[in-house]
Amino acid sequence: MATVFLHPKRKTYYHRAQIPKKLRRHFRGRVELWRSLKTEDKDEAKLKSLQWETRAQRVFLTLKRHGATMSPLEIDALIERWMDAELEVGEDHRATHPVTEEWLFDTAMIRVSQMEDLNEDLGRCNYHRVEHDADEILKAAGLPPLAHDSVEFKRLCRKLILAKMDLLSIETDRWKGVYQDRKVNAAPATVVAPPVKKSPLFSVIAKKYLAENPRARRTADQVRVELDKFLKAIGGDRPIASITKNEGRTYKEHLIQGRGVSLATVAKHLHTLSGLFTWAEKQGFMNEGAPNPVKGLAPSKTESEKSATDIRPFTDEELLRVFSSTNFLDQKAPRPDRYWITLLCLFQLCRREEAAQLALTDIGAQDGIPFIVITDLGEDQSLKNKGSKRKMPIHSSLVSLGFLDYVRGLKDQGESRLFPQLQLRANGYSDAVGKFFARHLDKLKLSEPELVMHSLRHGIHYLHALGCPQDVAEMLTGHSATSVHDKVYAHRNLTPLTRLRDGLEKMQFPAVLTALAQEDNKP
Prior knowledge:
The strands form two sheets. The chain has a three-stranded antiparallel beta sheet with strand order 1-2-3, covered by helices on one side. Strands 4-5-6 form a three-stranded antiparallel beta sheet. By secondary structure, it is mostly helical. It contains 22 helices and six strands. The chain has helices spanning about 40-65, 70-95, 100-125, 130-140, 150-175, 200-210, 215-235, 245-260, 265-280, 300-305, 315-325, 325-330, 335-345, 350-355, 395-400, 405-410, 430-445, 460-465, 470-475, 485-490, 495-505, 510-520, and strands spanning about 1-5, 15-20, 30-35, 365, 370-375, 390-395. It is about 55% helix and about 5% strand. It has four domains: about 1-65, no CATH class; about 70-175, no CATH class; about 200-305, DNA polymerase, domain 1, CATH 1.10.150; about 315-520, hpI Integrase, Chain A, CATH 1.10.443.
């Protein structure tokens, strides 16, 4: 049933169609479809509504005929039947055809090429190469065809690619005379999956989980984005209790092969996801006794550390190249965010987001000592951890380069943020500056994986090398206290700024300062 109504806010007519109950799962549980008719004329709206109603009914009819769904067990059974048939074909061929060394070599090379193609398709979630075979498998089983853009069809294609890869490995061994027992799924193609508990959609549970397990704003945004990517990797949103271990593996493959992220990042995302499923199980949203879909899939700490890239600090010569470059010096007037955030990371040893989110009220003076406060009290500000909250003196090099003049200029203009030109993105305020710095390093031929913007903060080693006390170094850099004494009794907020200043001023970059000052003094 369709209706035409006038939208109260947009003042134009809309078409509204009721989605049949049996088809709502195809629309993520929605009850109605709305469509703007882009007119304020009621008669014209009625005519356009009839056209949209025809289209909607055509969609509903197609879904009724071809929108059948298949459970993971049914798909596994189909793939197993296909695998058995293909292996029998291979056995018949070996029984009836003579084999030569040349033929074995040629077929081995063909299998290598096929394996490479399948690996590439799997990593890119490209199913075009196996779609015809998947249609034939359904037809051979006497099942209706599935829409090629449906979750079930894509899952069938993905399982088929994995099965083809297994088949190539098994056939390679068998042509060499090596036969091994293969675990088979004896379930018939008509197997019925065990009943799945009715549960809320994954997206709904994710919102509840994040609400009850709050994180810093930037971290929470990144987690939300990654949870959305998880849903896309497994084919879309669905009840959380229906998500399987195989789909957990699909997501892991997507991270490693599809996106090429590091094993440390894979482990981080899988641990976050595992925590969500564990919480959902405790809240009663999962099937009792069902395994956590991603538990145990994360790479081990040893594997992650072996594959990790160790960030290193810049050498003095590299720092001079970075800060004396015309490309960097030319940023000061048009893009002060790029200029000052980079220098804050160097001289204040702060994280780039800590610098990018600063408000003008976070900069002040006490007993003649200018300072910066890193806090999460302002709008859209966040901290990495409890130890990140701190007050630190402003390095004398920044003062001599005119940083406080820049601050006064913004206050005179009525601004509230230190870098008002930066917009808040999913990765925080500093994402654009980080990308600029990466491009800057590329131009200077400093494109080593170990050198990134965070390498500036690794100047912390200068503090230690020059005799800065451990507790002062920790306070300046926003690291949590390492000793029980400092954790319980240090009371960092009572540490005099003079002591922090003495520690920070041990770190000097005279060549960098000279290059920057000379540029400022040019006529």
